């Protein structure tokens, strides 16, 4: 399971705005290019572990600041699906 977690965390910590837009579209999460850019810039180099509840909660709060609370809720739903054990 740890390798799966490492792969997901690596992808989140290195995601680009274009990749984020692609995934948002794939999972029906509405974000603008500007929001995707802000979120990707925030994530880059942070080494966030979405499998850690506190880190994930902090990340969702930061996404809410950049993209709005509705988008943050949708992203949190996606994270919840990814971290199910």
**How many strand segments?**
0
Task: Please state the structural category.
Answer: mainly alpha
What series of H and E elements makes up the topology?
Answer: HHHHH
Mean pLDDT: 88
Shape: globular
What count of structural domains?
Answer: 1
Helicity, as a percent range: over 70%
- Kindly provide the radius of gyration, computed on alpha-carbon positions and rounded to a whole number of angstroms: 12 Å
For the biggest sheet, the summary is: none
Ends apart, CA distance between termini:
9 Å
Beta-strand residue percentage: under 5%
Q: Count helical runs.
A: 5
Uncertain spans: none
Protein name: DUF2624 domain-containing protein
Please characterize this protein's 3D structure:
By secondary structure, the chain is mostly helical. The chain has one domain (2-83). The protein has 5 helices and no strands. It has helices spanning 2-14, 17-26, 33-43, 53-67, 69-83. Helix 2 crosses helix 3 (33-43). The radius of gyration is 12 Å and the shape is globular. InterPro entries: DUF2624.
Give the topology, please.
Layout: H1 2-14, H2 17-26, H3 33-43, H4 53-67, H5 69-83
Helix pairs in contact: 2-3, 3-4, 4-5
Protein name: DUF2624 domain-containing protein
Pfam family, one: DUF2624
Which terms would index this structure?
single chain, DUF2624 domain-containing protein, 0% strand, mainly alpha, 75% helix, DUF2624, 85 residues, globular
